[in-house]
Amino acid sequence: DAVVASIISITPNPIEEGTTVSFSGSGIDTLSHSITAYSWRSNLDGIIGTTNSFDKSDLSIGNHNIYFKVQCSEGVWSNEVAWENNPLVVTTIPDIVTATIISISPNPVDQSSTVSFSGSGADSLDHSITAYSWRSSIDGIINTSASFDKSDLSAGSHNIYFKVQCSEGVWSNEVAWENNPLVVTPAITTS
């Protein structure tokens, strides 16, 4: 009694975590017994399926070697076969964090006047934005809030940059204000 398993398809490959993968396999018995059991195995996750075809979306991250075997109605298992396209590659979804400067005004400004800064951030995986960093080419880090007012900038032409961080610790790229520079004119002193 020879029982033979064959993997028909595993698609797609590679995938990002959480993506649905479709598995399809079949078996034959040379004595025409029916195939009554199926076993799909991943070297990382163990048994992942027990039917001839199924979908799975919770595979762990990594390189999975996939194996398949079938059993006939007489209780005889086939040899386990390896998928010819091993490994099935499951990668992480990239966490993309972006910073946006909403406004900086007024510009130009007298050194004794107040400048209002406003920015925001977004995360591709919907993590919350938990940290902010505003930087001036002249004064260095000038604030760590989304929005703030500042009236003690040094005189000069400031290039302003902004970045944000998500709750998972990922920082955005630093973005430059599209209207750079912020021109701060010296305060006029009267004697």
Task: List strands and helices in order, with pairings.
Elements (H helix, E strand, L loop, with lengths): L2 E9 L3 E2 L4 E9 L5 E8 L3 E4 L3 E4 L5 E3 L1 E7 L8 E2 L5 E4 L5 E9 L3 E2 L4 E9 L5 E8 L3 E4 L3 E4 L5 E3 L1 E7 L8 E2 L5 E4 L6
Parallel strand pairs: 2-10, 12-20
Antiparallel strand pairs: 1-3, 3-6, 4-5, 4-8, 7-10, 8-9, 11-13, 13-16, 14-15, 14-18, 17-20, 18-19
Write a structural description.
With 191 residues, the chain is mostly beta strands. Helices cover 0% and strands 54% of the residues. The protein has strands spanning 3-11, 15-16, 21-29, 35-42, 46-49, 53-56, 62-64, 66-72, 81-82, 88-91, 97-105, 109-110, 115-123, 129-136, 140-143, 147-150, 156-158, 160-166, 175-176, 182-185. The chain starts with a strand and ends in a 6-residue tail after the last strand.
Output the keywords.
about 55% strand; single chain; about 190 residues; mainly beta
Distance between the termini: 109 Å
Evaluate the radius of gyration.
Answer: 30 Å
Oligomer designation: single chain
- Ranges with pLDDT <50 over ≥5 residues? none
Summing up helix and strand content along with how strands pair, one would put the structural category as mainly beta
**Approximately how much helix is present in the residues?**
under 10%
Mean of residue pLDDT values? 95
